[in-house]
# Entry
Amino acid sequence: MTERKRSRSGKKPPAKKMAARSTPGLAEYRRKRDFRRTSEPRGGRRRAARKLAYVIQKHAASHLHFDLRLELDGVMKSWAVPKGPSLDPAVKRLAMQVEDHPIEYNVFEGTIPKGEYGGGTVMVWDRGTYEYGGDEDEDDPVDGLRRGYARGDFKFALHGKRLKGSWVLIRTRRGDPRRAQWLLIKHRDEAAEPGSDVVEEFQTSVATGRTMDQIAEGRKSRRRTG
Ligand code: MN
# Structure
């Protein structure tokens, strides 16, 4: 909280300098991509949001998967979930951690050129905000998120358009923290729907209403200029 207050009250540096500011957490993300060829964002621009961002992007790359991204400390912590989320608390979905992504990536919808890293179609499948979902008397919820993440027991509550309620990511395999394996599980609450298939139910973008085919064929969405 203190950091955010400070950056809000501080004088805004010019846009060029902001874009050039280095973001060490995004080094791997940038190394994998050629920004002259892909319209994905380079990242590093700051955002003065007070709520933590949440997005799931459906990504038809070499294998179809769903990229779950949760904002923490200025980047989007990211997991590739091959089968996507399930609202059924009995279902555990494998979530493979991937490199942190820039917050600007959350609005990316379109096509990554063939042959480039992650080449294929990307849809904004769900988005919204999220918050700490652990112990209710935690006096620093963001720190609660940090500790949960570090421990491999990451409890959070989603306020998306399609996904809501309480969830947990449990790390099952350590090693390189950017290659760890986790399980994504819905907690039992009002938002749980045993037996449902939310990934099958929603086939369009929450941002543009387009299907994967329409995105693949289509013109660029209006918010992208690249
Ligand atoms: Mn992906």
